[in-house]
Structure formats: structure tokens, C-alpha cells
UniProtKB/TrEMBL annotation:
Signal peptide: none annotated. GO terms for cellular component: early endosome; endoplasmic reticulum; Golgi apparatus; plasma membrane; recycling endosome membrane. GO terms for biological process: phospholipid translocation. The keyword RNA-binding does not apply. It catalyses: a 1,2-diacyl-sn-glycero-3-phosphoethanolamine(out) + ATP + H2O = a 1,2-diacyl-sn-glycero-3-phosphoethanolamine(in) + ADP + phosphate + H(+); a 1,2-diacyl-sn-glycero-3-phospho-L-serine(out) + ATP + H2O = a 1,2-diacyl-sn-glycero-3-phospho-L-serine(in) + ADP + phosphate + H(+); ATP + H2O + phospholipidSide 1 = ADP + phosphate + phospholipidSide 2. The chain crosses the membrane at residues 258-281, 312-331, 833-854, 931-953, 965-988, 1000-1024, 1030-1056. The gene is ATP11B. This is Phospholipid-transporting ATPase. Catalytic component of a P4-ATPase flippase complex which catalyzes the hydrolysis of ATP coupled to the transport of aminophospholipids, phosphatidylserines (PS) and phosphatidylethanolamines (PE), from the outer to the inner leaflet of intracellular membranes. May contribute to the maintenance of membrane lipid asymmetry in endosome compartment. The active site is at D377 (4-aspartylphosphate intermediate).
Length: 1147
């Protein structure tokens, strides 16, 4: 009971959770946000419980309530979207064996001990111990691409006692107990045992990783399986590899909190100064108790300390508007509404999959413009998860596949000269097919028949040397001719332990050597339409030390043959025959093209040789001690004296424009790291083909480190090599084991090596290791902004760890997309997401934050200055309605629309010039220097407002026609009017991209202020207890001197700002300003600016054009764009961001 109570209170979390559903949470305040507590205090202070101030409680309470309400609605909406997404997973239907039948339930309701049925191509809803499958041996095949990034087929087996229980009725009679270890995150480790009771006898069977089906994996090549749930919910290995999601905060929010603290110090300082000066002023008796304001007896006897505190709090309330509380609601609205532009951008829409970009967290929009490191998965993120056979080298002749036929690049028996001639005609093949099919294996070609035999032997090696599985759906309509056949890949469905193997077997099938399956120890191959059966004698499995695999088969003629396949570095040294030198040259040529290469060789055994090999293999495989070492020795004894057949070249098909995107990221100053679970050779090959590694790079390796001392020594060698080598660019390759050692004791040395590498590849990475690497970079002294992008469940941890997480909606499920901040369909979309959306979002919100502090300084500083002229009596300069509506109505819309629509430079230019991204990196627009400039500007404008009004009309007693002079409220209204016009015009000066919406809200805000003031002061409202502003505004506007003062002060304030902008753009332009003034490419048809003008210009038009050129202004109606087909990334700009016209006419 006590534990249950602690669980409900959150002190003792439950041991097991069945779901991952995130419910709507009103995060108030949101963790990590800095909201000064003083706002709540101000409401209490001004509620007349402690003191009496000129401002109403509504003045401070209404903006606070508005901020809280809007923030809660926005956060609640985003949490509701996550709740819906989680329900799709937790509510997925599954079949469970209960009460002797199959019952449909939801995945979140699976309990430990339930027997679950999973059908072909379905995802396992929990971690299951395999009980049985539709196969007699109880085996099944799964893919774990969403867990470890590997697309290979893995085989799992059930214990013999449960493998025979293939029906629901039989399983219902099963009496067994599974004992296993507590849940842990290691995907490849599982230990347990199953105790089965049969006929009053207990049978104990060990359980290992081969018996465990992991949640998130997918069943392949098996009709159905039954498994018992051992880990469910958050105890599954997939869930344990998730990093607990923390609240992410952008760099802008951190800067904003710093600025708020500074302004809080300014607020407190002003309140202290005012309080001290008040008592200094009242030290004279005539000011302490004037004749018209006599003190009461209670006031004379009250404590001076309490009176001092009361006055300090009163000034705190009077000046509290210098803290821009409405900044929070505007930022929340800007982020929420601005996030829709990503989803509306047609350039981020993928037509093939019908997927558009998604925004799961709008709080990080501006962080897209600050990324310094990109950590990307490989499989499914950079690649399409598709291998394609491209070229091969057979007996020293290079071929490539064109339209399903092999084409040679050298002379052949049919064509003694010329290049790219077809290997042979189909009729010639048919005439020789009976000879090739019946011939024995020979190695020295003498005629056309021998040529056919060589290729026949090469592709037989490809078709036999593998661990490929084939689906049960087969067909007999297989092509009967080599190098060109009617074979359709859809007729046979291959599943391979390596994607390379699948591509090679499919290629051999297209050329007439078709692997049609195996039954037991027999492998069946169709050669030229004739079925041949080979007996599989032994498989010499692949291992990273040998870097090759082999099979020993018995041919139909009785010959014992060894077929070997592996990396050229492991095959060529063991060869004693074949075209070794020519093949080596071809392999290097394939590698330069970024293709994955494998060499093929064979060896023929005599009966005596095979008997010796068979005996040695049996002894090594049954040894109880040093089994691995003995097997390695036997494999080395077998795989020697080889005859080289040739080499294959397979392309791991990259996603479209991956190379261009990575190069653009590099130009933008972003370092790209690839984190993958794949093998070292595969990862490096893809890195070379996608441009992550260049051929000119000096590739450093930190691999297979066994101890801390060995790792430290190797890191020291790499550091010295970097210092000594005069190579511009270095690349680093590190595997998961070595990385664990490096992060344990040598973080500083490892980071020092990484900093000097322009590209880093981490292979054989566990999911949590990916998150640890990102964490290491995040906490480094530079504290760079990181971005992680991936498509599988194995990428969720790094996506949640990085400052910005992006999920790819690919072929490995939706776990990454659901747990990410943003989701896109292809890696290439990352360029526009960062260079365009990220750039715009950052510039917009940076200006928004600075502008809010500026306009609040303009607002409150005259209030502070006014206290010097009212004996610090805490008299307010503005009416309370103006105090409330200044940030909510009068000045809110122009900056909000600016923060949504501003495009200070054309999107096409931003994407074509990634170097412009460097100008906004490291939060440059919110640096302390820029912040001080805006703050100083606000103070200077405030001084002009106050003292300009004071000296121009403050002492004039004959301004009104009836002889009355301006009073307190008229003076304050004049200051307020000048302020509203000036800060709105200042926003207009900052705007570069004008739409009808900008015009409406900018000039409409000024018009609204005038109309509102006329109605507010022109009517006696019955629901107002006092109306100090009655007829004040009308009298102010009836004065010509007031109009003159307004125009003069507004012009004075803005003139200084314009002069500074002109000076900076002429003599110290930034790269962005240069891009605004320069014809960046042929898509902009203007010679002297980005704006076009008609021929009939007035005399003032040239001056206006020069001014717009200097300021960088562009009207959308004047811009003419015509994108050329050669433009990179996107040939047409269909972005919803581009609100301007898109005609192709010239100026």
C-alpha cells in the first residue's frame, strides 16, 4: 500500500509501464523557461493589499493572464498531437492466445507471459521468445533495420520441444516457465532458460539471442510465428535504448533569459534610485508635507522602514512594463504559426511517398539556423536501402550492366575491336548452351565456348557462395539464356544476410544463372534453363578478421569445389591463378566510383584433399577449448591456392542529391558525422560514394582497440599524425568498441583528434552510443548546436539527445519520425530546412526579441524621467488603458507579421549560397553587442520623446484656442503618440519583404491607435469610474504645434537610424547585405538591385531606388524570378514562403 501511494505521488516510479503514451500536460511554467516571478508579485502588490499605486490590478494581471492562456493552449495542442501519434502504436491490433483461441487486443495490453501471434511482414509488438513457426524446424527470419540499421536477414530458432506446437490448440496445452535476466538495453545479449513440463517430466532448454524476437523488428519470409512475451512496454530493449526525453531549449531562449535578467536589474535599479531620490527630495519640509497635501496622524507615526519598502514596491510596479511580458506570448505565437510554413512548403513534399514535412515541436524553429554539427544515420537516411549491381570484372575483362545485358569495355571473340560491345549474341549463346551446360570446369579458355564457360563459372560462384534465403512463392518461368533473360525480379523474392549478396544473386539471375532455392543440404541453380543440384558440404562463415566467406559444394559431376567471396585485400594474396593484375586495376577503378567491391575465386579439391579438410573442420568445430583459434587456422588452410574468377561492383543506392546536400552543409561550416551500426567496410564505402569522405582526404582509423592503454597510444599516434601531415582535410573512422574505450578515459584526447577532422565516421554503434557521442560534443567547451537525423528506432536516442532531432519517414517504420522534433521524407530536404527555413526563423525571432526590449525601453524610460518632474510621487505618465494596450494592441501586430513573413533575402539565393549560413551561426544576431545597440537606441529614442515634448510644448501656455494650457494627461498622451508612431516606423525600416499584410498591420496599427483614442477620449463611458482622458486626445490633435512636434520628433529618431544603416551598408556590409545588393545568379533579372522598376520613373524614383538599394528593401511586386534548370537542389521554387510573383519576364 505504501509503495502504491509513493507511486501515485511520483516518488517511487512503477517497476513496469505498458505504454509510452504522453498525455496533455499543461507545462506551466515550461521547464527551462525563465519567467520572472515578479509578475505574480506585481499583481498582488497592485491589488491594494499592501500599497496604493496609480495603476490598476488589471494593468499587470491582464497581460499575465493572456500570456499564460496562450502558452497553455499552444503546449496543450502539441501534446495532444503526440498523444494521437502514440495511440497509433499503442492501439495497434495484435492476436494473443487466450482460453484456447486467438483473441484480438491492443499492443499496449500485452502482458508478460502472453503468447502472441505475428504474421509475415508484421512488426513484433514486444520482446518475444520464439515458440514455433510455420516451419518444421521452428526457424524464422527477421529484419532489424529499425533497431540496429542493418537490413540483413537474421535467423531465429525455437527450442525443439515447442517448435512442433504450430497450432493454437497445441500451444494452449503448453506448460512451461521462462526464466531470463532483468531488462537491459544491449540488443545482442539475452540469457535465459525455459523449463518445459511434458508427461510429468521437466525439460530445461537454454535461451540465447537466437531465441529472442525484439520489439520493432519485422518478420520476413515466414508465414507466421508464435512467441511468448518476456519484456513489454518500456522494458523492451527498443524502449530501453530510448533516451529519456528532456526539455529542449533553443539558444535564442537562453539569450532571451539573459536579457531578461539584465532588464530585471535595470528595473530594480530604477526603483531603488527613484526611492532614494524621493526621500532625498522630501528631506526638505516644504516638499515632505506641502500645504495642499497634509499627512494624517497615522502617516506621521508609521515606520520609515516599512514606508521605504512600500515606496520601493510602488516604483517596481510603476516601472514593471520594462520587462516585456508580452514577448512570451508573441514568441509562442510566432513559433506555433511559423511552424505551418514548413508543412506547407511544397519543396519539402515527397510525391512518391505522399509525405510532407511535419513539425512535432515548434519551440526549436530558430535552432535550425544555428546548427554546427550534423549527426546522421547511414542506412535509410543517406541510402535507399537498395543495392544495385553495376559492373564486374571476369577473367580480366570489365563489364557493366546496361538494360539487363552485360556489356564489355574491351574486345571479345565476337568483336575484336571497339569499345562497349555486347559480350555475345543471344543466338550464339543458344548454339553453345548445350556445350556450356555439360562441360566440366576448366580454367584456360580456348574459344567462344570457353568464354561462355568462364562467365558461367563466375556467376555460378555468385549464385552458390552466399547465405541467401528465398521465399516460398516460386515460379518456373525462368529465363533460359545467359546475360539476357525474361526473368522478372518479382518472380523470386530473395532475403539475404547482406544486401550485397541479394544484389549479386539477383544480378546472376538476370544473366541466366538463377538460384531457385535450397532444401536441406541441396542448393538448386538453373543454368540456361537446366536445373542443377549442388550439395552444400560446408559454410565457412564471414568474420571481420578474414574479411571473406566460403562454401564447399559438390557439383552434379561429383567434383568438390570451394567458392570464395570477399574483399580484394583478403582474396588476391591467396590467388595463384587468374588475371590477378588486371582484376586489381579494375577493382581500384570500381572503388574510385564509390562502388562496393568483392572478389570471387574458387578451388577444386581432390578426394584426398577434401577428406583432410573435412576431418580438420570436424575437429575444430567440436573443440571445447580455443575453438575460434582452431577454426581460423583451418579456414586459412582451406582458403589458399585459389584461382581468381573476377570481381563484382555493387552500388548502395544513395538517396537523391545526398552528395550535393553534404557538400552544401560543409560549405555552410557544418561538420557532418555519420553514426551507423553497419560494418566498417560498408560504412566507409558509402561515405566515399556520398561525398562524406573524399578520395583526397587522409583517412585515420581507430579500430579494434582492446584496452585503454592501446586506445590511448593509438589516439596519440593519430594526434601526432595530424600535426605532422600537411593535409588540408582529415577523416576519422572509429568503431563502437574503440569509441567506448576512448570515451571512458580519453575524452579530451579523442575530442582533440575529432576537432581536426572535417568528417568523422562511427561504425558498429549501439543506439545509446550514438547518444553518448552527441552528448560529448554538446558538453565540449565550444558548446556547439547539434542536429541528429535518422529513420529507425535505433536513432531515437541520438534524435532526443541532440539540440534538434529530425526523423526520416522512410522504410524502417515511424519510430524516429514520432520521437523527432521535425520529420522529413528525404535527406536532401535538410538543405532547405536549414539554409532557408532555419535562416529565416532565426533572423525573424532575433529581430523580434531585440525589438521587444527596444520598444519597452522606449515605453517606460519616459515614465522614469517624468518622476523627476513630479517629486517622485509615483504619478503615472500614461493612462492605465494605454499601459495595458501598448503591447497587446498598438505595437503587437507589426512585429508578429514581420516574424512570420520576413524574407530579408530571396530563398533561392540562400539555398544556392550556403556560405550565408555562416553569418548567423553562433547566435550572432543576439550577441551582447547587438543587444546593447538596441537598448541604447531605445534609451536615446525615449529621451527624444520626453525632452522633445517637454521643450517644444511643455512650457507653452497658449497652445489651445480657449486659452487653456496642456496638462499632465495631454503631455503624457503626446509622448505616447510619438512613441507609437516611432516604434511602428522603426519596424517598417527593419522590414525588407513587403506584402499587403505588412502594409495593413503597419499603417493599420497607427490608424487604429488614432481611432481608438478618439473614441476612448471622445465619449463618456458609463462603466468607467473615472475618465481622465476625456476630450484630451481631441484637444491634442487640434493643436498645430502638437502636429509639428510629432513630425519633428519622429523624423529626428528615425533619421539617425537611417544614417547608421546607410553608413554600415556602404562601408561595412555583411555577406548577407552584399547578397542583397548583388546579382547573385541569372534567376534575378536586375542589374543594380534585387528590385525592378518600370521605365516611366519620376524624378524622385531614382532617389527612392538608391535608398532601397542601400537599405536592401525589395517589394514583391517588383521582383522577377526565372529559375534555370541548372540551378542546384530545386529547379523550381514552389515554397509557400515565396509570396511574391513568379513570372519569368525580365525587367
Amino acid at each position: 500500500m505504501w509503495r502504491w501511494v509513493r507511486q501515485q505521488l511520483g516518488f517511487d516510479p512503477p517497476h513496469q509501464s505498458d505504454t509510452r503514451t504522453i498525455y496533455i500536460a499543461n507545462r506551466f511554467p515550461q521547464y527551462g523557461h525563465y519567467t520572472p516571478q515578479k509578475f505574480i508579485d506585481n499583481r498582488i502588490i497592485s491589488s491594494k493589499l499592501m500599497i496604493d499605486t496609480p495603476t490598476s490590478p488589471v494593468t499587470s494581471g491582464l497581460p499575465l493572464f493572456f500570456v499564460i492562456t496562450v502558452t497553455a493552449i499552444k503546449q496543450g495542442y502539441e501534446d495532444w498531437l503526440r498523444h494521437i501519434s502514440d495511440n497509433e502504436v499503442n492501439g495497434a491490433p495484435v492476436y494473443v492466445v487466450r482460453s484456447g483461441g486467438l483473441v484480438t487486443t491492443r499492443s499496449k495490453n500485452i502482458r508478460v507471459g502472453d503468447i502472441v501471434r505475428v504474421a509475415k511482414n508484421e512488426i513484433f509488438p514486444a520482446d518475444l521468445v520464439l515458440l514455433s513457426s510455420d516451419r518444421l524446424d521452428g526457424s524464422c527470419h527477421v529484419t532489424t533495420a529499425s533497431l540496429d540499421g542493418e537490413t540483413n536477414l537474421k535467423t531465429h530458432v525455437a527450442v525443439p520441444e515447442t517448435a512442433v506446437l504450430q497450432t493454437v490448440a497445441n500451444l494452449d496445452t503448453l506448460i512451461a516457465v521462462v526464466e531470463c535476466q532483468q531488462p537491459e538495453a544491449d540488443l545482442y545479449r539475452f540469457m535465459g532458460r525455459m523449463t518445459i513440463t511434458q508427461q510429468m517430466e521437466e525439460i530445461v532448454r537454454p535461451l540465447g539471442p537466437e531465441s529472442l524476437l525484439l520489439r520493432g523488428a519485422r518478420l520476413k519470409n515466414t508465414k507466421e510465428i508464435f512467441g511468448v512475451a518476456v519484456y513489454t512496454g518500456m522494458e523492451t530493449k527498443m524502449a530501453l535504448n530510448y533516451k529519456s526525453k528532456s526539455q529542449k531549449r533553443s539558444a535564442v531562449e537562453k539569450s532571451m533569459n539573459t536579457f531578461l535578467i539584465i532588464y530585471l536589474i535595470i528595473l530594480i535599479s530604477e526603483a531603488i534610485i527613484s526611492t532614494i531620490l524621493k526621500y532625498t527630495w522630501q528631506a526638505e519640509e516644504k516638499w515632505d508635507e506641502p500645504w495642499y497635501n497634509q499627512k494624517t496622524e497615522h502617516q506621521r507615526n508609521s515606520s520609515k522602514i516599512l514606508k521605504f519598502i512600500s515606496d520601493f514596491l510602488a516604483f517596481l510596479v510603476l516601472y514593471n512594463f520594462i520587462i516585456p511580458i508580452s514577448l512570451y506570448v508573441t514568441v509562442e505565437l510566432q513559433k506555433f504559426l511559423g511552424s505551418f510554413f514548413i508543412g506547407w512548403d511544397l519543396d519539402l513534399y515527397h510525391e512518391e511517398s505522399d509525405e510532407k514535412a511535419q513539425v512535432n515541436t515548434s519551440d526549436l524553429n530558430e535552432e535550425l539556423g544555428q546548427v554546427e554539427y550534423v549527426f546522421t544515420d547511414k542506412t535509410g537516411t543517406l541510402t535507399e536501402n537498395e543495392m544495385q549491381f553495376r559492373e564486374c570484372s571476369i577473367n580480366g575483362t570489365k563489364y557493366q550492366e546496361i538494360n539487363g545485358r552485360l556489356v564489355s569495355e574491351g574486345p571479345t571473340p565476337d568483336s575484336s575491336e571497339g569499345n562497349l560491345s555486347y559480350l555475345t549474341s543471344l543466338s550464339h549463346v543458344n548454339n553453345l548452351s548445350h556445350l556450356a551446360a555439360g562441360s566440366s570446369f576448366r580454367t584456360s579458355p580456348e574459344n567462344g565456348t570457353e568464354l561462355i564457360k568462364e562467365h558461367d563459372l563466375f556467376f555460378k560462384a555468385v549464385s552458390l557462395c552466399h547465405t541467401v534465403q528465398i521465399s516460398s512463392v516460386q515460379t518456373d518461368s525462368i529465363g533460359d539464356g545467359p546475360w539476357q533473360s525474361s526473368f522478372a525480379p518479382a518472380q523470386l523474392e530473395y532475403y539475404a544476410s547482406s544486401p550485397d549478396e541479394k544484389a549479386l544473386v539477383e544480378a546472376a539471375a538476370r544473366f541466366g544463372i538463377v538460384f531457385v532455392g535450397n532444401s536441406g543440404e541441396i542448393m538448386e541453380v538453373k543454368t540456361l534453363g537446366k536445373l542443377e543440384r549442388y550439395k552444400l558440404l560446408h559454410i565457412l562463415e564471414f568474420d571481420p578478421d578474414r574479411r571473406r566467406m566460403s562454401v564447399i559444394v559438390q557439383a552434379p559431376s561429383g567434383e568438390k569445389l570451394l567458392f570464395v567471396k570477399g574483399a580484394e585485400s583478403s582474396i588476391l594474396p591467396e590467388c595463384i591463378g587468374g588475371e590477378i593484375e588486371k582484376t586489381k586495376i579494375h577493382v581500384d577503378e570500381f572503388a574510385l566510383k564509390g562502388l562496393r567491391t568483392l572478389c570471387m575465386a574458387y578451388r577444386q579439391f581432390t578426394s584426398k584433399e577434401y577428406e583432410e579438410i573435412n576431418r580438420r573442420l570436424f575437429e575444430a568445430r567440436t573443440a571445447l577449448q580455443q575453438r575460434e583459434e582452431k577454426l581460423a587456422g583451418v579456414f586459412q588452410f582451406i582458403e589458399k591456392d585459389l584461382i581468381l574468377l573476377g570481381a563484382t561492383a555493387v552500388e548502395d543506392k544513395l538517396q537523391d542529391k545526398v552528395r550535393e546536400t553534404i557538400e552544401a552543409l560543409r560549405m555552410a561550416g557544418i561538420k557532418v558525422w555519420v553514426l551507423t551500426g553497419d560494418k566498417h567496410e560498408t560504412a566507409v564505402s558509402v561515405s566515399l560514394s556520398c561525398g562524406h569522405f573524399h578520395r583526397t582526404m587522409n583517412i585515420l582509423e581507430l579500430l579494434n582497440q582492446k584496452s585503454d592503454s592501446e586506445c590511448a597510444e593509438k589516439l596519440g599516434q593519430l594526434a601526432r599524425r595530424i600535426r605532422e601531415d600537411h593535409v588540408i582535410q582529415h577523416g576519422l573512422v572509429v568503431d563502437g568498441t574503440s569509441l567506448s574505450l576512448a570515451l571512458r578515459e580519453h575524452e579530451k584526447l579523442f575530442m582533440d583528434v575529432c576537432r581536426h577532422c572535417s568528417a568523422v565516421m562511427c561504425c558498429r554503434m549501439a543506439p545509446l552510443q550514438k547518444a553518448k557521442v552527441i552528448r560529448l560534443i554538446k558538453i565540449s567547451p565550444e558548446k556547439p548546436i547539434t542536429l541528429a537525423i535518422g529513420d529507425g528506432a535505433n536513432d531515437v536516442s541520438m534524435i532526443q539527445e541532440a539540440h534538434v532531432g529530425i526523423g526520416i519517414m522512410g522504410k524502417e517504420g515511424r519510430q524516429a519520425a514520432r520521437n523527432s522534433d521535425y520529420a522529413i521524407a528525404r535527406f536532401k530536404f535538410l538543405s532547405k530546412l536549414l539554409f532557408v527555413h532555419g535562416h529565416f526563423y532565426y533572423i525573424r525571432i532575433a529581430t523580434l526579441v531585440q525589438y521587444f526590449f527596444y520598444k519597452n525601453v522606449c515605453f517606460i524610460t519616459p515614465q522614469f524621467l517624468y518622476q523627476f518632474y513630479c517629486l517622485f510621487s509615483q504619478q503615472t505618465l500614461y493612462d492605465s488603458v494605454y499601459l495595458t494596450l501598448y503591447n497587446i494592441c498598438f505595437t503587437s501586430l507589426p512585429i508578429l507579421i514581420y516574424s512570420l513573413l520576413e524574407q530579408h533575402i530571396d530563398p533561392h539565393v540562400l539555398q544556392n549560397k550556403p556560405t550565408l549560413y555562416r553569418d548567423i551561426s553562433k547566435n550572432r544576431q543576439l550577441s551582447m553587442k547587438t543587444f546593447l545597440y538596441w537598448t541604447t537606441l531605445g534609451f536615446s529614442h525615449a529621451f527624444i520623446f520626453f525632452f522633445g515634448s517637454y521643450f517644444l510644448i511643455g512650457k507653452d501656455t497658449s497652445l489651445l484656442g480657449n486659452g487653456q494650457m496642456f496638462g499632465n494627461w495631454t503631455f503624457g498622451t503626446l509622448v505616447f503618440t510619438v512613441m507609437v508612431i516611432t516604434v511602428t516606423a522603426k519596424m517598417a525600416l527593419e522590414t525588407h519583404f513587403w506584402t499587403w499584410i505588412n502594409h495593413l498591420v503597419t499603417w493599420g496599427s497607427i490608424l487604429f491607435y488614432f481611432v481608438f483614442s478618439l473614441f476612448y477620449g471622445g465619449i463618456l463611458w458609463p462603466f468607467l469610474s473615472s475618465q481622465n482622458m476625456y476630450f484630451v486626445f481631441i484637444q491634442l490633435l487640434s493643436s498645430g504645434s502638437a502636429w509639428f512636434a510629432i513630425i519633428l520628433m519622429v523624423f529626428t529618431c528615425l533619421f539617425l537610424d537611417i544614417v547608421k544603416k546607410v553608413f554600415d551598408r556602404q562601408f561595412h556590409p555583411t555577406n548577407i547585405e552584399k547578397a542583397q545588393l548583388t546579382e547573385t545568379n541569372s534567376s534575378i533579372k536586375c542589374l543594380d538591385s534585387m528590385c525592378c522598376f518600370s521605365e516611366g520613373e519620376t524624378a524622385c524614383a531614382s532617389v527612392g531606388r538608391m535608398l532601397e538599394r542601400v537599405i536592401g528593401r525589395c517589394s514583391p511586386s517588383h521582383v522577377s524570378r526565372s529559375w534555370s534548370a541548372s540551378d542546384p537542389f530545386y529547379t523550381n521554387d514552389r515554397s509557400i514562403l515565396t509570396l511574391s510573383t513568379m513570372d519569368s519576364s525580365t525587367c
